[in-house]
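User: Last request for today: this protein with flavin-adenine dinucleotide, please.
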Amino acid sequence: MYYDEDGGEFREELRDLLAAEIEPVVDEADREPLTREEFLEYTGVLRELDVGFSPEMAREYFGNLERFAIVSEEVSRVWPSLNVALQMSFPSVFVRHAAEPTREALLDDLQAGECIGCLAVTEPEGGSDTARPNTVARKDGDEYVLKGKKEWVGNAPIADVALVVAHDEEADTQDMFLVDQPTSPFETETMDKLGWKGVNNGKMHFDGVRVPEDNRLSNIVGNALMEGADMQEIVPFPEAVSQLFFEQKALNATFSFMRTGMSFMAVGIMQAAFDEALDYVHERETFGKPIGENQLVQEKLYEILRDLETSRHLSRHALELLKRGDDRARLYSSLAKGYTSERSVDATYNALQVHGGEGLKTENRLERYYRDASVMTIPDGTTEIQKLIVGKELTDMSAY
Ligand SMILES: Cc1cc2nc3c(=O)[nH]c(=O)nc-3n(C[C@H](O)[C@H](O)[C@H](O)COP(=O)(O)OP(=O)(O)OC[C@H]3O[C@@H](n4cnc5c(N)ncnc54)[C@H](O)[C@@H]3O)c2cc1C
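Assistant: Here's the final one, the structure of the complex with flavin-adenine dinucleotide:
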């Protein structure tokens, strides 16, 4: 396939692992949001291949973007929810350089790869506008007091630690704050939804939650640099990507990274749907012949493969730009996320249609692929917002 030089063997090993450990359980496991124990059990499987968030693994997983893309695609080919749950746990990496109470509470779990994280950006008043959060962080002595609400946050109800976007009143700027559940408890509530059923998305309530000043993200990074850590130790991205955190807003750089991952996720979902559709056209017979002999069915295969392959190539291009720390990474990650998410809805719909009534049965996977694809067009910015980001990057004029 496409990653032979850097990822051929890893991709094969990952495929084998997923086939042995995840395939057999995914249909049942995806019916409900993951509990903490289930999250640790299934991500524990991936740790067998060094895919996880202990400091060493984070460098292997996030620090090697080829690997990151392969994980996103291959895990999503089998279980998109698992990919999201794993990926959204990334804020746990900041525990390593956080305030002492946070480190004391969670460092052992982090080292063991068992510290669950989440990223809390979206607010009930509207998720598209992330520029000025209503959640505020008020300085009080050597602490910040957080007040506000978040929703849709992946892993929130099972998270040990949350990276919360808030408006820092004193500095009159947006920042992120690492809030750990053991020493700065916050309330959560699980939300139900159409697809990605396994991801435990939740509402979060911060009603005067106190956080040490050293847990402000800019302080975490600044303190760690002063103690002699290099950037890759703090944020385990390759150097070129870390550079984007300085050149762009940290949140924008984070989104460029996550949206590229989402694009490969869409590719994985489409690949699964395509594989099943191709098998089925040989198996199913109507009018005394396999349905694959019908021109209209072949047209559907053409369309699914077209959507899959154009998405794969665009995702690949976005990844290359990200790897180079190219300043077009933001534009292309939005272009790729917007395009591939929409294509995944079309492709899974076509695959479902090829299966006729079988495609609608909940005992088969087609309806899950279609539900999971439908969710892709909303998180990390809706398709409309991706269009506006591309427009802004192209014209230097903001339409939002
Ligand atoms: C399954 C799932 C997982 C998620 N995970 C997380 C997570 O882990 N962390 C997190 O912080 N958030 C998460 N989110 C939230 C997600 O990022 C937001 O739902 C998304 O950004 C859209 O925000 P919204 O739902 O409030 O829609 P709104 O902002 O209310 O938008 C409603 C509609 O209006 C359109 N719209 C809004 N503004 C404009 C504009 N200026 N021009 C044109 N159209 C516009 C949108 O495209 C959309 O169609 C998740 C959401 C889902 C569904």
